[in-house]
Specification:
With 403 residues, the protein is mainly beta. It has helices spanning 339-353, 382-402, and strands at 7-10, 14-18, 23-28, 39-42, 48-52, 56-60, 68-70, 78-83, 89-94, 99-103, 108-113, 120-125, 131-136, 140-145, 155-156, 163-168, 175-180, 185-189, 194-199, 207-212, 219-224, 228-233, 238-244, 249-254, 260-265, 269-274, 283-288, 296-299, 357-360, 367-370. It contains 2 helices and 30 strands. The strands form 8 sheets. The chain has a 4-stranded antiparallel β-sheet with strand order 3-2-1-28, with no helix packed on it. Strands 4-5-6-7 form a 4-stranded antiparallel β-sheet, with no helix packed on it. Strands 8-9-10-11 form a 4-stranded antiparallel β-sheet, with no helix packed on it. The two termini are 29 Å apart. The model is unreliable at 303-403 (pLDDT under 50).
Length: 403
């Protein structure tokens, strides 16, 4: 199992998982044993995790050493954290409205970013590593430039509900998404600091988590307290389809293969879905993973960050580290057999309209048609049949535009 295919979860413990069977080769409990983790993120090289649970801790997950280093000497009310462009620096969001940049080796605060009027709830680093997006409990977002130290004016969501998650697209630093406690999902143009689209109340009870696909630049997923995972074309932007679970969902992740989706629930369960499935939910398996809410999920993938792939000296002083794997990341147009495009979006058409089942042959990647499930009965009117045909044409059109 390579590090690119592992994922981590944060709850009462931080766990690393093999997604093929949802087995758990690694688990780490909080240093104080009481406060549950609310955030977890991988380092650029796949050897480290950073987790927040009031304090900020860096955990080594490679080899036999599973050391955990706490950066703050006392509880700093950190609720989220991620690595900066270099794994030698960590960014953390705090309830005191600040974002801190930590020097990992010295365990010291190198910089404090401000601008929010209420507590920071979530962070996202752009793929290039130059922009940091932070959301707050007051419903605003701020974009921080980590190269020029500039801070944008607060970007307001249509509601004033707390921002529950923010994510950058891995294909461009200008496309981002945010979710809110009122159930809204917002698409942002960070370059112009403009709101492009609001999907109003996509989740009853609140939207909790977001995930962009690592293979398809248009695919976005959200999850919420209603137990739904909703998929969107983030570029158009339009909703595509939904999948469901039997409990409220708190986090979601699209794995690097582009077809596996992992969701975490408030009951501590992990759900594994396959986007190739033509069934209504596509659920493969479910396992009881934690004793508390799965607050955060994260997978490792190679990035374009400069300085990535270096191992931290606190565990391996003077080590040469591993090579940066950025060149191995699939790029748009590099592989016509891209499974995310060929499979995932055909499934959207199938699930939304249920009138033609498309599947990809793994041998020749040619499209084949399966017997369709009629949308209308024999007694249906001609107008209803025409409407169903138009829906199918629109579905197929969406698929080929996304391909």
């Amino acid at each position: 199992m390579t590090s690119e295919h592992r994922f981590a979860s944060a709850a009462d413990t931080v766990c690393v998982w093999d997604p093929s069977q949802l087995t758990r080769p690694f688990s780490k409990t909080p240093s104080d044993g009481t406060r549950h983790f609310t955030s977890v993120r991988w380092s650029d090289n796949g050897q480290l995790l950073v987790a927040a649970n009031g304090s900020v801790s860096v955990i080594q997950v490679s080899g036999t050493d599973t050391s955990m280093l706490r950066l703050d000497t006392e509880d700093s009310d950190a609720v989220c954290a991620c690595f900066a462009a270099s794994s030698r620096q960590v960014l953390s969001g705090h309830r005191d409205t600040t974002v801190k940049m930590w020097n990992v080796k010295n365990k010291s605060v190198a910089k404090t970013l401000q601008g929010h009027l209420s507590g920071v709830t979530c962070l996202a680093l752009s793929r290039g590593g130059s922009r940091l997006l932070s959301g707050s409990s007051g419903g605003d977002l701020i974009c921080h430039s980590l190269t020029s130290n500039d801070t944008s004016e607060p970007m307001r969501t249509p509601s004033v509900e707390s921002v529950t998650d923010v994510q950058f697209s891995v294909f461009t630093d200008s496309l981002a998404a945010s979710s809110s406690q009122d159930g809204d999902v917002n698409i942002w143009d960070i370059g112009t600091q403009q709101l492009k689209k609001t999907f109003v109340q996509q989740h009853h009870g609140g939207a909790a988590g977001l995930a962009f696909s690592l293979l398809n630049e248009k695919l976005l997923a959200s999850c919420g307290m209603d137990g739904k995972i909703t998929f969107y074309d983030a570029v158009q932007p339009v909703p595509l389809m939904s999948k469901s679970a039997d409990s409220p969902l708190s986090s979601v992740l699209i794995m690097p293969d582009g077809i596996t989706v992992i969701a975490g629930s408030q009951t501590g369960c992990l759900y594994k879905y396959d986007l190739r499935s033509g069934t209504s939910d596509g659920l493969i398996t479910m396992t009881k993973a934690h004793e508390s809410t799965v607050a955060s999920l994260s997978t490792h993938y190679a990035t374009r960050h400069s300085g990535g792939g270096q191992r931290l000296g606190m565990w391996s002083k003077g080590s040469s580290g591993i090579a940066d794997k950025a060149k191995t990341r699939p790029r748009k147009g590099s592989d016509p057999r891209n499974v995310s495009k060929d499979v995932a979006f055909s499934t959207c058409a199938v699930t939304l309209h249920r009138s033609a089942a498309m599947q990809v042959s793994s041998q020749n990647r040619q499209w084949t048609n399966e017997p369709a499930t009629p949308l209308v009965s024999g007694a249906a009117t001609q107008a209803t049949k025409l409407s169903a045909s138009k829906s199918l044409v629109r579905a197929v059109g969406i698929f080929f535009s996304l391909s």
